[in-house]
Amino acid sequence: MIGFTPLELTDLAEKQIKNRLQTVEGVSSITIGGEQRFAIRLWLDSEKMAAHQVTVLDVQQALLEQNVELPSGRVENWDREMTIQTRGEIKSVEAFNQLVVRQDKDRFVRLRDIGRAEQGVENERTGARNNGRPCIFLGIVKQSKANSVAVSHGIRDQLELVRPTIPDGIEMVVNYDESTFVEESISEVWLTLGFAFFLVVTVIFVFSPQLPGDTYPGYCDSCVDHCQFCGDASAGIFDQYFDDAGTGAGYWYCGR
Questions:
Q1: 1-37+124-176: which CATH topology?
Q2: The whole model's pTM is what?
């Protein structure tokens, strides 16, 4: 952002970055924070106005009469119609300084005689900074049914495509990303499930007093195979479950 004014950053964000980000799937709208709009600011000197007998209403009336662009008519032919406009809108600082505020016979009082015009912004009371440097914020609003993580990844991919096209000295950073908390929450859920499973297995195979010293989990196709393996019922504990087909599947424990 070095060497760029908020006015230039606003123009760049609107014309080059905002339109690209709006093409990402799931994006509803994009708001620009800290933006600055171009404007011509007029500064009036009260002492000079009193000396020339000019009021603020005189200046306002002069602007309404001389700084205007209205249709003056049209030109028609058989297959075309063109509108004629009178170029009366003032767009430069020099032209504003030459604005006639009051006329007394052959004496003209211009804006430069009671003040000055200078290039500026519409609102000088607002602004945005990032680490002490002027910046512009772009707020991405997703659609109500859009996936936050997918939208975030799409925005980041689009930023990487835009980055080579912006002038040197401008840096694009992500200060806040809601999807980061979503992804971390999902990771915490999986971690909690894995830890809970580990605790359950640990309690069953280590801390349960009902199990013999040596345990052997396994799978058997029938009750007969299992009974042949265990031999004597007093030598272990057996829980067998049968399905509709008549085969058995379950945990068996043998020990002494």
A1: Alpha-Beta Plaits (3.30.70)
A2: 0.54
